[in-house]
Amino acid sequence: MTTALHPPSRRRKARLQEASLIEGPMLLLQSIRGFKSNRSMLWLACVPVALFGLGIFNLAARAEGAKLDQLTGLQLASFLADNLWLLVATILVIFMNAGFAMVEAGMCRQKNAVNILAKNLFVFALAVTAYWFVGFSLMYGGSVADGWLFFKGLFFDPSAADAIACAASGKANDCSQLVPAVDFLFQAAFAGTAATIVSGLVAERVKFGEFVLFALVLTAVIYPISGSWQWNGDGWLANLGFIDFAGSSIVHSVGAWAGLVGAMLLGPRIGKYVNGRTQAMPGHNMAIATLGALVLWIGWYGFNPGSELAMNQYVAYVAVTTTLAAAGGAIGATVTSTLTSGKPDLTMIINGILAGLVSITAGCGNMTMVGSWIAGLIGGIIVVFSVAALDAAGIDDPVGAFSVHGVCGVWGTVVVGLWGVKGLSPEEFQMGIGLFNGGGFSQLGIQALGAGAYAIWALVTCWIAWSIIGALFGGIRVTEEEEINGLDIGEHGMEAYPDFASAGN
């Protein structure tokens, strides 16, 4: 019998540079922060799904058979103008993500700035991917359940043959001459906006991973299904005559209701309520928040005029109604905040502008100029009282996102039924459909039904989604220690302003 003079040597941990093709991927993943947790398996599961999806897409893609040279000069000009305008509008809508990030980051505390910026940036990337994979098909596919559910396979057909054929027919009013790729990009930007709205309501206390998982579900399933009810053309709300030109309910209120559920499940931030009294938690950078509001205002010219889906004589008019509503919202919020608090509140001016923009989004193609300004003015007044009401109800909304997008989203939908017009053509413009301009209660009832349907759908489905995610991963809120120290360090391991002392902010 021999005795070992030394304990058996342990196997040296393999380095990434020396790893085999089998070991390499796992070592790489283990080196990434977060992939040693229980959540890592969920992320890993996405890899084969993504590769499988890409394979399907590549196999399905086909060469274009149609040629632009079959179009006449005027047909080609119209075809290119429509598609170019929608591409420009898409870029403006995508740029709105910068505005959302700046407003949210500026109105929240310094210690959470990185987390907010990361959420807004990554969520849009995730939203585009989810919408490309299945969301676009659920929203604009063929009917599965008459008026309620649509589907047309994964991804979308990029062929422009139908669009070119439509342009060649000279009947663009009866068909679409938009290239599918351009149309997809525009709609995907809207899906990303809905997800971004949620971020503001759950700011400063939600786990990063759980939030992006919810955004994935929202943009892949919840938002597209509800959007199909109106924008598919064969949806049950569209058949009823419901009007939501650019998404006061479809985009803004759905995103706001989704965020409201998350905010209620999370509860208020530590220190928001002391002995039943609301405590102010001022944002750390109002300059960047103000700049963000201006970026959003500019981006809205892609949101609303772009929803005309063509470059025609009505685009400029929609831009004017959008501008007047924003102006009215700013005036309404400024005057109201001055009367209620004694001084004009910059946060309310910002939210007033955004409230005005949301208030006109549904009716920007169905409102007079005077009606647009008044709609925005009332939206600006509403947002001030709504923010105060949510605080009194114990619901912590750090940036006023629900008041802006939810309350004013409902108001913007309903106002079409109060003094909207049938359309922008000379004949339709003279036909009032609202209660106060000869249209009776019919359109008002339809608008209220639509706003209520979107609220119920979003509340129920998002409560289920938030609850399942929370149950799977031990809740959706960060620990008390992480929240006190800031999500920048706890969730991301970095600071937005490392050269400045945080001083607890």
What does this structure look like?
The chain has 505 residues and is mostly helical. The protein has one domain (76-152, 165-269, 281-492): Ammonium transporter AmtB like domains (Ammonium transporter fold, Orthogonal Bundle). Helices cover 64% and strands 2% of the residues. It has a two-stranded antiparallel ribbon. A hairpin with a 2-residue loop joins strand 3 and strand 4. Helix 3 runs antiparallel to helix 4, helix 4 runs parallel beside helix 7 and helix 11 (315-341) packs antiparallel against helix 12. The longest helix is centred in the N-terminal third of the chain and has 35 residues, at 73-107. It is globular and about 70 Å long. Residues 1-22, 24-29 and 31-65 have low confidence and may be disordered.
Question: Which helices and strands occur, and which strands form pairs?
Answer:
Layout: H1 23-30, H2 40-60, H3 73-107, H4 113-140, E1 142-145, E2 149-151, H5 161-169, H6 180-201, H7 208-231, H8 236-240, H9 248-266, E3 273-274, E4 277-278, H10 286-303, H11 315-341, H12 346-361, H13 369-392, H14 401-414, H15 416-419, H16 426-429, H17 442-472, H18 480-485, H19 487-492
Antiparallel strand pairs: 1-2, 3-4
Helix pairs in contact: 3-4, 3-5, 3-6, 3-10, 4-6, 4-7, 6-7, 6-9, 7-9, 7-17, 9-14, 9-17, 10-12, 11-12, 11-13, 12-13, 12-14, 13-14, 14-17
